[in-house]
Amino acid sequence: MIGSIINGQERNTSENIMDVINPYNKEKVEEIALASRDDLEDAITNSFDTFHNTMKSMTAHERSDILRKTADLMEENTEEFAQTIVKEAGKPITFSRSEVGRAVQVIRFASEQAKHISGEVVPMDAAIGGEGRLGLVKRIPLGVIGAITPFNFPLNLSLHKIAPAIAAGNTVIFKPAEKTPISAHMLTKLFTEAGLPDGVLNLVTGTGKEVGEPLVQHDKVHKISFTGSLPVGRSIRKSAGLKKVTLELGSNSPNLLFEDTDVEQAVKLLVKGAFAFSGQVCISAQRIYVQKNIYDQFLKQYIKQTNDLKIGNPEDEDTDIGPMISEEEAERAKQWIDDAVENGATIAAGGEQNGTILAPTIMTDVDKNMKIIAEEVFAPIVSVIPFETEDQVIGFSNDSIYGLQAGVFTKDLDRALRVADSLEMGGVWINEISTYRQDNHPYGGVKQSGIGKEGVKYAVEDMTELKFIGMKLKQ
User: Fold this and answer.
1) Exposed, middle or buried, 386 (CB in 10 Å: 0-12/13-18/19+)?
2) Considering 248, 329, 454, 461, which one is annotated as catalytic?
3) How far is CA 59 from the centre of its chain?
4) What are the CA-CA distances from residue 368 to residues 191, 331, 365, 383, 398 (Å)?
5) Residue 8 confidence (pLDDT)
6) Contact at 8 Å (CB) between 357 and 324?
7) CB within 8 A of 131, min separation 6: which ones?
8) Residue ranges of the alpha helices (H) in 175-318?
C-alpha cells in the first residue's frame, strides 16, 4: 500500500483505502491510502513553512541542478514509469514511453528556465519628477502552489505544473487523479532522490471532495493550477477567491482541410490525432471539416486506415487502441454515439463497445447540437463534416463554447494565416493536427477552455509575481 508523502514521510495507514484498477484486465494494481483533511492541513502548513524556511534561500543554480538530476533519473527509469502508466491508465506502451520522454523534456526545460528568471530596470526619469531615482522590477515566487492533475497524462501534465513551480522557487502540494496515483508517488520519490528538500513537494492522495476542495479554498495556498473538466474548473474558479488560478479545461478541437490539402498525409495524421489514447486527450481531433470536393476521397481513406488500427492489450508493442479509463466512461461515450444515431447521424466506422474498450468511431451526417459535436467527447469518436467556403468553416469552427487548439491544412500560406487569425483558439497549427503539442510553447485556451498558459517559460511567469523596488539616489 502507498499513500501521501508529507515532509518526506509516507502516510499509508489510513482506514480509507482505494484500489487502483487496471482498466484493461480489471486487476488490482495497488492499494492507496487516501488523505484526510488533517493530512491536507499538515501538508499545507509544511509547504508554507518550507517555502519561507528553505525555498526562499535556495539559489537558482541549486533549483536548476535538482531539476536536471530529476530528469536524468527519470530517463534512466523510463521503462518502469512507462509500464506503470500502462497498468494504471491503460495507455498503450508506445504512447506511455513517449509520455515519459516528454516528461523528461519538461523537467529539462524547467531546469534551464530556473536560471533565466529575470526582471527589468524601469526608466524612472521618463516621468516628470523621476530624476535621481532608480526603479527595479523583480520576479519573485508566489509561495505554495496547488497542482491538481488528470489521469490522461499522469506524468507529463503533472510536471507542467510541478517543474515550473520548483524552477520559480515555490513549494507544491500535488493532488493527482484518483485513478493514477502510482506514477505520482514514483515521481515524488524521484524528486527526493534527486536532492529536493523534504516539504518542497508534498503529495496528497485523496478525493476531490476531501482534499481538492479545501486545497483550493485554503488561504495559505497562493495559486491553483488545474487540468480537468469544465464543471470542476468552474467550481475551482468560484471557490479560489483572490488567489491565482490556471485552468486547462475542455475542448472539441476542429481540424480544417481545404481542397489543396495533401489528403494522404492529413489522413495519416488525423487517425493518430483522433484516436491516440482512445481520444482521451483534451486537444484530440474531434471535428474534422473537409472541403466538399475532397470530402469523399478523404473519408474513404480515413475509414480504411481507422479500421486497420489494432485494438487490444495496451502492454503489447503493436497495440494502437487500448481501453478507456473506466467502463462507465466507455458506456457514456457509447450512449453519445447512440443518441447521435437516433437523431440522424451515421456510424461510418467503429461504434462497438466491449467493457472499457470503445472501437475507434467515425461519425458522419452530424448536427452541431449533438453532444459528439457540441461537447467534449473525450473518447475515440470523431465527426467528419463537409464544408464549402472559408467563411463557412470558420463559422462552424468558432460555433463552440470551447477554444483550445485547432489544425488547418492547406498549401496556401495566405489562407493559412488568415484562417488562423480568424479562429477563436488559444493555439492554431498549420499543416499539423490540433493534437500536437510541444512542451515549450504557450498552451492554453480561450472562452471556456480555460484561463492562463502552460509551457514551462509561461508557467514560470504565472507562478511568480512582479515586485517593484524604487530607490531615491543621492544628489
Assistant:
1) middle
2) 248
3) 29
4) 46, 22, 10, 10, 11
5) 97
6) yes
7) 124, 125
8) 181-193, 213-217, 230-239, 263-275, 292-307
H or E element at residue 44: helix 37-53
Q: Tell me how far CA of residue 120 lies from CA of 2, 302, 440, 443, in angstroms.
A: 46, 52, 23, 25
Average pLDDT, the chain: 97
Contacts with 333 (C-beta within 8 Å, 6 or more apart), sequence order: 324, 353, 358, 377, 378, 379, 380, 381
- Pair 96, 195: CB distance under 8 Å: no
Q: Percent helix, strand and coil across the chain, each rounded to 5?
A: 40, 25, 35
Rg of the chain over all Cα atoms, to the nearest angstrom:
23
pLDDT of residue 456: 97
Mean pLDDT of 17-35: 97
On whether the pTM is more than 0.85, the answer is yes
76, 112, 259, 282: the catalytic one is: 282
**Cell numbers for 457:** 517559460
Under a CB-based contact definition with an 8 Å cutoff, are residues 61 and 78 in contact? no
- Our answer to whether residue 248 is catalytic in this structure is yes
Q: Which residues pair with 9 in a beta bridge?
A: 6
pLDDT of residue 13: 82
**Bridge partners (DSSP) listed for residue 220:** none
Q: What is the pLDDT of residue 12?
A: 87
pLDDT over 90 (residue 468)? yes
* Strand (E) or helix (H) holding 395: helix 390-398
pLDDT higher than 80, residue 475: no
Question: Which residue in this structure is represented by grid cell 532522490?
Answer: 193
- Residue 14's pLDDT is what? 79
The Cα–Cα gap between 252 and 377 comes to: 7
Q: What is the pLDDT of residue 474?
A: 84
Q: How many CB atoms lie within 10 A of CB 204?
A: 28
Q: What does the alpha-carbon distance between residue 62 and residue 217 come to, in Å, rounded to a whole number?
A: 31
Find the farthest-apart pair of alpha carbons in the chain and give their distance in angstroms, rounded.
Answer: 82
Q: Is 282 a catalytic residue?
A: yes
pLDDT above 70 as % of the chain: 100
